[in-house]
């Protein structure tokens, strides 16, 4: 059940929010939310729910033991917990990939099983690992009630594609929260903005991205240079608008139920460096690897050589986390190779480079990185990268390129602006302005835009055939 579907928006979510508001106590609200979340998750497969229940039980049980035992026993318990969680993730996400590569090298096994990836397993696995580690570190108390920990891991707002919510961020709200009118208002606004970003902008950008990015390697080799760059730009817009839209909707639904999730994006496409980009893109994942991998490995405290090794491990795992395919590993290594020299250059040297050149370089890097991210078939990936440089003997331009650009320039412009803080800053300016007309416009916008965006989104969704979120597959 996709967030940006008619059945979710007009039926499941509407009923859930109404039912949640009618519950007389926080405990009753939690039980209702747990039932709704399990129904939502089981919509894809009951088997997926069984895997989720197993992971949560393992984490719940071992976390309780972590508060009983001390010393080496605690360390071993944590190791067992993390190993079990990662083993489950590994079997479902990476076993087929490993066997396929083994078959290519040795011819064994003859048949590689096609294992279906459980919905959201990458996200809730990391949430449970962060919970177990935080209990071990003494940052949070172990949750005594299994069903409450299950609610934390399975909350339908964000269990499928994030943000990766740490238990400590919502531990208090799981037991004591208030649903306020302002919270509901902000939640509705955030949800409808995300819905519009997904249904109106991201889905439309997907059509432009597919215009020159479809077909096998032989077909891709014939695509014009300008067309490939146009699709690369459209795909960069699509993936940001798609993923940030999911986070917007998750944060909005959380607010409507009294939960406050951390921001997951902070306009990464206006970054002037790779470091800044990753500080603002998928913040919950970046901070997870920083706090639970990079710093425990020693971070930058053990010399340059060890820091480079730690960065390699982090970016290898970052790529691998996104998918069981070589292109994701290459994608992670691409950023590793950019970050190492960038961190070696003093900040004053970077700041001396005019911002326009740094921004242009970042746009190029971002577009190239998402091309690597998109193509799991390495032959197709190399063909597209060569084609973008005109190395396939392909034409520079074609009539189809011109028609595609003329038909979609307004969409691409609006989508590009939506990736910047322009609308956010304009809204703040209207709100804080001393001009009476500006304040009237702000108040009218604040009241009307959720309804307008909802109506427009529903109209678009009615006839839209493309709808799944990109990150639902991770």
Percent helix among the residues?
A: over 70%
Overall geometric form: globular
% residues in beta strands:
under 5%
Can you tell me the number of structural domains? Answer: 2
Order of helices and strands: HHHHHHHHHHHHHHHHHHHH
Which blocks of ≥5 consecutive residues have pLDDT under 50? none
Number of helices: 20
Strands, count? 0
Q: Sheet bearing the most strands, described?
A: none
Task: Look at the helices and sheets and give the structural class.
Answer: mainly alpha
The overall pLDDT average reads 92
Provide a descriptive summary of the structure in words.
This protein is mainly α. It has two domains: 6-177, no CATH class; 183-469, no CATH class. 74% of the residues lie in helices and 0% in strands. It has 20 helices and no strands. It has helices spanning 6-22, 26-42, 46-66, 72-106, 121-137, 146-154, 167-175, 181-213, 217-220, 225-256, 274-280, 283-297, 304-322, 326-344, 347-352, 355-374, 378-388, 399-418, 422-432, 436-462. The longest helix is centred in the N-terminal third of the chain and has 35 residues, at 72-106. It is globular, with a radius of gyration of 23 Å.
């Amino acid at each position: 059940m996709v967030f940006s579907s008619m059945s979710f928006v007009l039926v499941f979510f509407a009923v859930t929010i109404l039912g949640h508001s009618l519950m007389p106590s926080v405990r009753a609200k939690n039980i209702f939310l747990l039932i709704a979340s399990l129904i939502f998750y089981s919509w894809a497969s009951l088997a997926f729910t069984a895997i989720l229940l197993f992971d949560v039980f393992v984490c719940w049980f071992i976390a309780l033991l972590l508060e009983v035992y001390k010393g080496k026993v605690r360390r071993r318990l944590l190791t067992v917990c993390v190993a079990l969680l990662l083993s489950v993730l590994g079997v479902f996400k990476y076993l087929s990939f490993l066997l396929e590569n083994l078959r290519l090298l040795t011819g064994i096994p003859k048949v590689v099983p096609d294992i279906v990836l459980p919905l959201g397993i990458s996200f809730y696995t990391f949430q449970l690992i962060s919970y177990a580690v935080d209990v071990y570190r003494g940052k949070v108390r172990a949750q005594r009630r299994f069903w409450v920990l299950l609610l934390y891991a399975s909350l339908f707002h964000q269990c499928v594609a994030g943000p990766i919510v740490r238990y400590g961020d919502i531990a208090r709200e799981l037991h004591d929260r208030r649903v306020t009118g302002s919270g509901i208002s902000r939640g509705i606004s955030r949800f409808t903005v995300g819905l519009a970003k997904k249904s109106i902008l991201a889905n439309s950008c997907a059509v432009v991205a597919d215009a020159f990015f479809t077909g096998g390697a032989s077909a891709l080799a014939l695509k014009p240079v300008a067309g490939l760059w146009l699709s690369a730009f459209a795909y960069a817009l699509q993936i940001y608008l798609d993923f940030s839209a999911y986070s917007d909707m998750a944060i909005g639904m959380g607010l409507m139920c009294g939960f406050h999730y951390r921001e997951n994006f902070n306009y990464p496409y206006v970054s002037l460096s790779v470091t800044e980009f990753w500080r603002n893109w998928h913040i919950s994942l970046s901070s997870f690897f920083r706090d639970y991998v990079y710093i425990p490995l020693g971070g930058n405290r053990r010399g340059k050589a060890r820091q480079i090794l730690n960065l390699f491990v982090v970016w290898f795992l970052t790529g691998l986390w996104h998918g069981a395919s070589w292109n994701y590993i290459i994608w992670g290594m691409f950023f590793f190779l950019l970050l190492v020299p960038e961190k070696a250059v003093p900040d004053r040297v970077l700041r001396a480079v005019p911002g326009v050149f740094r921004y242009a370089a970042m746009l190029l890097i971002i577009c190239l990185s998402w091309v690597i991210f998109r193509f799991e078939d390495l032959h197709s990936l190399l063909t597209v990268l060569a084609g973008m440089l005109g190395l396939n003997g392909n034409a520079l331009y074609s009539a189809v390129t011109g028609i595609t650009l003329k038909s979609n320039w307004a969409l691409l412009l609006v989508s590009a602006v939506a990736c910047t803080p322009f609308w956010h800053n304009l809204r703040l300016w209207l709100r804080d302005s001393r001009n009476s007309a500006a304040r009237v416009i702000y108040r009218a916008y604040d009241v009307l835009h959720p309804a307008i965006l909802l109506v427009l989104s529903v109209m678009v969704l009615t006839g839209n055939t493309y709808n799944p979120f990109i990150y639902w597959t991770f």
